Amino acid sequence: MAPVLFNTIGTDHGDYIEQEEVHVKNPHLDSMEEDILYHFDLGTKTHNLPEMFGDIKFVCVGGSGNRMKSFAQFIHRELGLPGDMDDIRDICAGTDRYSMYKAGPVLSVSHGMGVPSMSIMLHELIKLLHHARCRDVILFRIGTSGGVGLAPGTVVVTKQAMDSFLQPQFEQVVLGKVIVRSTDLDQGLAEELLSCAAEIPDLPTVIGNTMCTHDFYEGQGRLDGALCSFSTEEKLEYLHRAYDAGVRNIEMESTVFAAMCHACGLKAAVVCVTLLNRFEGDQINSPHRVMLDYQQRPQLLVSHLIKKRLGLIQ
Hints:
- By secondary structure, the chain is α/β, with parallel strands linked by helices.
- The protein is 29% helix and 24% strand.
- The protein has seven helices and 13 strands.
- The protein has helices at 49-53, 65-78, 115-131, 187-197, 232-244, 254-263, 288-309; strands at 4-6, 36-37, 42-43, 58-62, 100-103, 106-110, 138-147, 155-162, 169-174, 177-182, 205-212, 247-251, 267-277.
- The strands form three sheets. Strands 7-12-11-8-13 form a five-stranded mixed β-barrel, surrounded by four helices.
- The longest helix is centred in the last third of the chain and has 22 residues, at 288-309.
- The radius of gyration is 19 Å and the shape is globular.
């Protein structure tokens, strides 16, 4: 069956609709008496969402709950917010699916690993921002990735999120039909991040395409999984094709993140650090202290942009 194309008209990077409030694209929500955000343990009747979240301007999402707690504490300190950063509590403590922390106008949320986990979280996050009547929100995915032709520790700001076929699109099966959505990201925001990176010492940063796969091992051309159906030569040929298509890193969430944000008119960016150069190997073997330094680099970059947006630095 031929795929159904969505968002294929007017997808130029300058075509983002300037919206004050966050909008969902589901008319059925209007007829619901209550919306239960099950995986967040939140709801429109049980919680005053506008009071809890109405001041959110920036949402940062990442895979690990612990990492997103650390980021919330970091941004709390960076913004000079009152109170003890160690007192920040998990808003989603009633569930073990995701973690959520609030630091002033910044929301820090874990999304787990892979497209399905990210998709579930994003559905409920976007509805949360809508119900809370948030305005002018920017979303960031901050995380780690495998580099393609880049030195470890390089931060990649995504230009386009590509699937495993090197196409800038996200395919979702809905009622037995393939829905294809655009994965365009806001290029003005990407350039703003690149400009911010130039103001931070020792923060190598590039703009490039990001390939999103559904697997960490075979799906990313790794030779060290429990299964491997290809040769070293085939792996390198595929990585070189990806490089020629502008891919500079590989991860497992960017396509659905870009597609859902684009579909809902949300400005968004993907900011991931490379932990290794995949042309040189498959296993991540840098010392722990080096890994911690690398993992903090996307946080440093995004926090710098947030502080500039809030007028805290020039």
